[in-house]
Design a protein that fits this description.
Helix content is 39%, strand content 18%. With 318 residues, the chain is an alpha/beta fold. It has two domains: 199 residues, Rossmann fold, CATH 3.40.50; 98 residues, UDP-galactose 4-epimerase, domain 1 (Alpha-Beta Complex), CATH 3.90.25.
């Protein structure tokens, strides 16, 4: 049974990856500095290392001591809007941090890496359905840092023979386990949940877009489906399979913000009518990614309906 390190393994996405690895007979090692993760997300019996990815020595020692064969690199500063205000913090975590991970891997002779990238590398696409060969125009330090991460993967593949693939995705939601939840202060699902539980009314930013119901359409993907494909990528790399440098984990059709609100009304049993705020500057009407390549190579599929996404998010929590 092989051992894989999950950076950010105590975070919302990383903790799901840890559990899916274990369910697939792979021994996970979780590393996290607990800046936005929670040690309680790590099941008993799983090795947990409290360290920052920029601590190259701690990373190297973990890779060697735990006999790790590959890394699923999920750790990072993931707030696109905040990255505009704090670009150096973003670059320190996401660029220096990723370079540190790769340096530790080189020292420890570990060459398999699955990189948790982001569809923010595309910026505002000029196509309705984003494929992997769409133009890359990140519009925030966060998106730029993820693109640089992808470049670092490619550089190490060329220079050192690393086996790497990057997974790009938009809006992650739901929960695969009732004790793991999204604690982000900026993501739509936890914002709506917090407001409804506090007796407040959620808001929609703009309802006059050129979409079927006037609200923005986005890719919402269930975190458990995402974790399954991260693990599928790890297994493929370890088996020697040739993977593409990057894959979109996309729904192919998307959901509108009003779809999400209507489903929350149904699932929560709270009858509310969202308030309508003005459009936010720079919000495109529709961004949806094509997941065809990932479906072919990484067991990617949308296994959860919008109702199941909302129900699992609503039921999970502190």
């Amino acid at each position: 049974m092989s051992n894989w390190l999950v950076t950010g393994g105590a975070g919302y996405i990383g903790a799901h990856v840890v559990r899916v690895l274990k369910e697939n007979g792979i021994t996970p090692v979780a590393l996290d500095n607990l800046w936005s993760g929670f040690e309680k997300f790590i099941p008993e019996g799983i090795k947990f290392v409290n360290a920052d990815i920029r601590d190259t020595e701690a990373l190297t020692n973990t890779l060697i001591d735990e006999d790790v064969v590959g890394v699923i690199h999920v750790a990072g500063y993931k707030y696109a809007g905040e990255s505009v205000k704090n670009p150096l913090l973003c670059y320190s975590n996401n660029v220096q941090g990723t370079a540190s991970v790769l340096q530790a891997m080189e020292t420890a002779a570990v060459k398999n890496i699955v990189f948790s990238s982001s569809a923010s590398v595309y910026g505002t696409p000029d196509v309705e359905l984003v494929t992997e060969d769409a133009a890359l125009h990140p519009e925030s330090p966060y998106g730029e840092s993820k693109l640089i991460g992808e470049w670092l993967m490619a550089d190490m593949a060329r220079a050192k023979g690393f086996k790497a693939t990057s997974l790009r995705y938009f809006n992650v939601c739901g929960s695969g386990y009732p004790d793991i939840y999204d604690a982000s202060p900026y993501n739509l699902f936890p914002i709506v949940i917090r407001m409804l539980r506090a007796g407040k009314t959620p808001a929609i930013n703009g309802d006059d877009y050129p979409t079927p119901d006037g609200t923005c359409v986005r890719d919402y993907v269930h975190v458990q489906d995402l974790a399954v494909s991260h693990v599928a990528a790890a297994k493929a790399l370890e088996s020697g399979a040739e993977l593409l440098p990057a894959y979109n984990l996309g729904s192919g059709d998307g959901l509108s913000v009003r779809d999400i609100m209507d489903t929350f009304r149904e699932v929560s049993g709270i009858d509310f009518t969202p308030t309508i705020n003005p459009r936010r500057p720079g919000d495109p009407a529709r961004i949806v990614a094509d997941g065809t390549a990932a479906a072919r190579d990484l067991d990617w599929k949308m296994r959860h309906s919008v109702k199941q996404m909302v129900e699992s998010a609503w039921e999970a929590g502190e």
